[in-house]
């Protein structure tokens, strides 16, 4: 259980922060940048939820919780010590990726195939979901970059990859099942 009785600690005043294992690192480290961008993704989900309702809102709430799980996973770098830990760190699992895939497939059955790229926009919810998509893509790039030099749970990378696809398809659902998508017209303003 997390208990936050005091919000500021002053321990980061010199540009360092603690990872989940207690090791202090620079706030600009690749790991902190990666999980910080996951947190930013979660903030965009909160904005999208201001425009959502029903099943889509419930799915966004699940995703928001998953993103906290993902941040917890990324801030705990000792992958090889998980089995021996008294309190093993929270890790993303294949079931979370599979749930996204299942939801993408279910939403996609409602949509006609695209014959053009689409522009972010249409409804307010769709525009916010496209923001979620682009920020989650940035988070994915940063996590992949981190994985090139440090241990990262492969399910974390898979989750982010599916998540941006989820946001794309959900954006189309938010645009009247794609009927109100704003289509890209190549060279329109030439």
Automatic annotation (TrEMBL):
Pathway: Cofactor biosynthesis; adenosylcobalamin biosynthesis; adenosylcobalamin from cob(II)yrinate a,c-diamide: step 2/7. It is an enzyme of class 2 (transferase). This is Corrinoid adenosyltransferase. SUPFAM superfamilies: Cobalamin adenosyltransferase-like. Its EC number is 2.5.1.17. Residues 7-173 form the Cobalamin adenosyltransferase-like domain. Gene3D superfamilies: Cobalamin adenosyltransferase-like. GO terms for molecular function: ATP binding; corrinoid adenosyltransferase activity. Pfam families: Cob_adeno_trans. The keyword Lyase does not apply. It catalyses: 2 cob(II)alamin + reduced [electron-transfer flavoprotein] + 2 ATP = 2 adenosylcob(III)alamin + 2 triphosphate + oxidized [electron-transfer flavoprotein] + 3 H(+); 2 cob(II)yrinate a,c diamide + reduced [electron-transfer flavoprotein] + 2 ATP = 2 adenosylcob(III)yrinate a,c-diamide + 2 triphosphate + oxidized [electron-transfer flavoprotein] + 3 H(+). InterPro entries: CblAdoTrfase-like (IPR016030), CblAdoTrfase-like_sf (IPR036451), PduO-typ (IPR029499). Keywords: ATP-binding, Cobalamin biosynthesis, Cytoplasm, Nucleotide-binding, Transferase. It comes from Cypionkella aquatica. GO terms for cellular component: cytoplasm. Belongs to the Cob(I)alamin adenosyltransferase family. It is found in: Cytoplasm. GO terms for biological process: cobalamin biosynthetic process. The gene is pduO.
